[in-house]
Design a protein that fits this description.
- By secondary structure, the chain is of the alpha/beta class.
- The protein has two domains: 171 residues, Aspartate Aminotransferase, domain 1 (Alpha-Beta Complex); 252 residues, Type I PLP-dependent aspartate aminotransferase-like (Major domain) (Aspartate Aminotransferase, domain 2, 3-Layer(aba) Sandwich), CATH 3.40.640.10.
- 38% of the residues lie in helices and 16% in strands.
- It has a seven-stranded mixed sheet with strand order 4-14-13-12-9-5-8, with helices on both faces. Strands 1-2-3-17 form a four-stranded mixed sheet. Strands 15-16-18 form a three-stranded antiparallel sheet, covered by helices on one side.
- The longest helix is centred in the C-terminal third of the chain and has 22 residues.
- The chain starts with a helix and ends with a helix.
- The site of pyridoxal-5'-phosphate has 15 residues, from helix 4.
């Protein structure tokens, strides 16, 4: 039995499924998860000493690669000063100021410890601020595992959603509507029928939890118009896309394409913690001041704004705001997607990919999917073979068809080219 296999067996005795977050168990692709012992730059090293080029980056946070010296130093220095105080610190202000300076429309924000917590809190705030109960989300978007958001579409148009998890009572999701991503007609109908009841629409503007699917510009434009017309808050879940697809997140991408575009509330996570448990939600002062202790919407956290996590986040933000950072990252990510596309074409395999900034996705199918149903219609069996073909060649891709991929600043052109060569080999060998 290999070391990874024996660790997995041991893990399964004490941790459900052997993992602390389900996707890590490799259930979608089969096989044994790699137990990572350390990581440096673009590389992860498993318990058997095997090296992998890492295209997960802890699911997004490691935009600088692992063990960036400036971040390491900031974290070590912060740790010496204390792990947690349960009292305010200057660093929390600095991080809030840094984020606010980068995202127009965020006047205030509150720090929390996970994207789930941020999404859940933004939802409560949206409901509290509007005095409405109904919320709208889109099939295939993930906003963390708060009960009200663990919902899939029912049959028929804009019907009541069904819980996607046991333990979520139907009553808890009765106010959640689940619509198809990029389906303009369904959006119009939902607002026509109950627009005045909708507290907020929560969306991943570039959805990274169904691989990589962009909200179309007409869809996003109309969504904004409908929200404005009905007094509904538009909540951008940028936990994945924030500071990842561009310095200003996906919001800056849409603001470039749609004149005057502005979301109402924002949810951040992943990159802003640089790998530490840190997330945030923010928006206009008038809405944010509905939060306790100023307003009636309760929200709190023992470790919120943790001094070591904020040091890590701040050091990360300092690096990514350096001139040219995103240009280089985007060029490298594009090089990867283009290279994979050529490799697949040479192998005669239907393939398409897309990317923005340092985030990418690819599908074994002829055209880019526009919604979750279309994502699931791509060739999953081939994806799984490809995943293992790449893993065995030392390239660590997300172990599921419905996950985005991430390139870091530590990935070199040579790393990208080696990845493309591995893909060409894997596809030639029938992956
Ligand atoms: C990862 C993610 C979350 C949840 O964040 P956690 O830190 O895992 O709780 C929420 N929304 C989006 C878009 C995400 O990608």
């Amino acid at each position: 039995m290999s070391t990874n296999e024996s660790l997995f067996e041991r893990a399964q005795r004490v941790i459900p499924g052997g993992v602390n977050s389900p996707v890590r168990a490799f259930r979608a692709v089969g096989g044994t998860p790699r137990f990572i012992s350390r990581a440096q730059g673009a590389w992860m090293i498993d318990a058997e000493g095997k090296r992998y080029l890492d295209y997960i980056g802890s699911w997004g946070p490691m935009i600088l690669g692992h063990g960036h010296p400036a971040v390491l130093e900031a974290v070590q220095r912060a740790a010496l000063d204390g792990f947690s105080f349960g009292a305010p610190t200057e660093r929390e202000i600095e991080l809030a100021e840094a984020i606010i300076a980068l995202v127009p429309g965020v006047e205030q924000l509150r720090l929390v410890s996970s994207g789930t917590e941020a999404g859940m809190s933004a939802l409560r705030l949206a409901r509290g601020a509007t005095g409405r109960s109904t919320i709208v989300k889109f099939e295939g978007c993930y906003h963390g595992h708060a009960d009200a958001l663990l919902v899939k579409a029912g049959s028929g148009l804009a019907t009541f959603g069904h819980p996607t998890s046991a333990g979520v009572p139907a009553e808890v999701v009765q106010h959640t509507r689940v619509l198809e991503y990029n389906n303009l007609a369904q959006l119009e109908e939902t607002f026509a029928a109950q627009g005045s009841e909708i507290a907020c629409v929560m969306i991943e503007p570039i959805a990274g939890n169904m691989n990589f699917v962009r909200a179309s510009v007409p869809f996003m434009t109309r969504l904004r118009e409908l929200c404005t017309a009905h007094g509904t808050l538009l909540v951008f879940d940028e936990v994945m896309t924030g500071f990842r697809v561009a310095l200003g997140g996906a919001h800056s991408v849409y603001a470039r394409l749609i004149p005057g575009f502005q979301a109402d509330l924002f949810v951040f996570g992943k990159v802003i913690g640089g790998g530490m448990p840190l997330a945030a939600f923010g928006g206009p002062k008038a809405i944010m001041q509905q939060l306790a202790p100023l307003g009636p919407v309760y929200q709190a956290g023992t470790l919120s704004g943790n001094p070591v996590a904020t040091a890590c986040g701040l050091a990360t933000l300092r690096e990514i705001t350096k001139p040219g950072f995103y240009e280089t990252l985007a060029t490298r990510t594009r090089r990867l997607v283009d290279g994979l596309t050529v490799a697949a074409r040479d192998a005669g395999v239907p393939f398409c990919g897309d990317c923005e900034g340092g985030m990418f996705g690819f599908f074994f199918g002829p055209t880019l999917p526009q919604n979750y149903t279309q994502v699931l219609a791509t060739d999953q069996a081939r994806f799984n073979r490809f995943f293992h073909g790449m893993l065995s060649r030392g390239v660590y891709l997300a172990p599921a068809l419905y996950e985005a991929g991430f390139v870091s600043a530590a990935h070199t052109d040579a790393d990208i080219d080696a990845t493309i060569e591995a893909a060409a080999q894997a596809l030639r060998d029938g992956a």
